[in-house]
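Entry type: protein chain
Record version: 2
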Amino acid sequence: MYIIVGLGNPEEDYAKTRHNMGFNVINKIAKQYEIEVTKKKFQGLYGMGNIEGEKVILLKPQTFMNLSGKSVQEILNFYKLEPTQLIVIYDDIDLEPGLIRLRKSGGAGTHNGMKSVIHELNVQNFKRVRVGIGMPEKKEDLIEYVIGAISDEDKEKLEKGIELAKEAVIEILKNGIDIAMNKFN
């Protein structure tokens, strides 16, 4: 069994922002595999289903980004799962829009949602799918950039990244992280 977590912010205002790439990937996976992510528990919205023969739980924490780890910790504890059974999907400013990167483990970088997950789990050895959103021209515009409106040109690129991330998650479930990394990195 895997817990697949998409990081994002819960309010409608954030739905179409760069910071919600994780939620967008979860939505795309849920649609393809007809998994309803509507149950409320674990400080999040979740749904259960099967992807390529693997039992999964899709989770969208509703804690706001900076506290995402609390939701992740609750669901792992409840189902008595290890961090190795976790895949976290999130936006990454260090990757160009439309690109993705897979990792087996590592630090959080500048991402506050990942900082929260690592802090709450007290480990770094879990799979992650980073969805590129690019960097604003001026670093001081970062907050507005990640939670602000997206241009049509960027929307197209981001949609490619969301689709790639969805495919990467499916590949991890089918063939493991090493094969997925070779294919998508």
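Comment: The beta strands are 2-6, 39-41, 44-51, 54-61, 86-92, 100-103, 127-132.
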